[in-house]
Amino acid sequence: MDFDVVVLGGGLVGASLLCALKNQDLKVALIDKAPVSQNSETNLDARALALSSTSVACLNMIGVWPKVAMHASPILKIHVSKKGYFGSNILEAKSQHLSNFGCVVNADFLNNAINQTVQESNNTHIFRPESITSLKKENKHWQIQLSSKKEITAKLLVAADGSASYFRQQQGIGVKITDRGLAAIVVNIQLAQSHQGIAYERFIKEGSIAMLPFGGGKVKAVWIGPALAMEKLKLCEEAEFLNELQENFGYRLGNFIQLGSRIVYPLQTVYAEAIYGDQWILIGNAANTVYPIAAQGFNLGLRDAAFLAEELAMAKKKQQDFTSIHFLQHYADLRLTDHQQIKLGTGVLLESPLFQWLGILACQWIAPFKRRVIKWGLGKQDCLPKLCRGIAL
């Protein structure tokens, strides 16, 4: 079977790219080693994902958002503070003429909606669960053999297969890895009172605590700190954990009364030394894995997918060669500023206590700086792809 574009990796970013290309004159395939998850938990252990308003616009344009909108919790305000320092800052969506800064959704609901949308397409083929047993380039086509013995070809390979990208390793693409011995505990918390649509970012001595509104009486907490300390907190009694969390975060959300399961993730940044080459391109975490500060990871990857879909659609309509180095270089140039600023911003926010505090004060007193921070958080610091502006391809 012959395809124009083959996407490696069927996670949220890779599958979103297929959704964005579903009405285009391109023959597209997706290869993923995992079966489609049908998990749709709504209890306290449900996974949550924060989406910027520009990501919501993109998901709406590709037919995904209507399937999950009723389950979304809007972020109306963002409260930023630093423990032990005076001053805090509240960013209000209404003051920026926005209905909200974005939404928090059940990640399984979103995953199911994206995969359902992919299945509705007539120009895509899904190979799942499948592993790649052979991958090589011959006669300007990628020759791919799957574990089922099926053989397919691709003009362009798009690797969206995550931080430990198989394609990146198989092709010997170098990476820059930064590991500062940090980890994140992710846990959902039942509150004694309503969160009122407010998201919190609280910087503490050795990390940060984010609280994201998730349903009427729940928040998703992301506590970043030294890996050994996070592992210890994962294993302690629930009451002890709640006390430690309350002591570090404070009482702006009232009392924490119940925990879901505590999951610990080791943190490191992984930046590919090249995001394109001879008829291949990297998107999402395969290109840039950033710290989970200000909920930038998936939002950055979704903009990768939206820009690539736009450029592929345009090239096809103009009968241009979308496998050429010129085309791939153009895409990389479009993404350069966004990639650089998100990498810099997330790194500085986590690693520089002085910048954290000065940034809070600057947002409080300098209106242009506050607007710039909001634009950064929404991915608007550079040009946005059409889909993120609500414009069809």
Polypeptide structure, described:
By secondary structure, this protein is α+β, with helices and mostly antiparallel strands. It has one domain (2-176, 268-389): 3-Layer(bba) Sandwich (FAD/NAD(P)-binding domain), CATH 3.50.50. Helix content is 33%, strand content 31%. It contains ten helices and 20 strands. Strands 5, 6, 12, 13, 14, 15, 16, 17 and 20 form a nine-stranded mixed sheet that branches. Strands 1, 2, 8, 9, 10, 11, 18 and 19 form an eight-stranded mixed sheet that branches. It has a three-stranded antiparallel sheet with strand order 3-7-4. β1, α1 (12-20) and β2 (28-31) form a beta-alpha-beta unit. α9 (353-365) crosses α10. The mean pLDDT is 88.
Structure at a glance:
33% of the residues lie in helices and 31% in strands. It has ten helices and 20 strands.
The major pleated sheet works out as: 9 strands, mixed
Helix content: 25-40%
Q: What is the count of distinct domains?
A: 1
For the terminal residues, how far apart are their CA atoms?
Answer: 27 Å
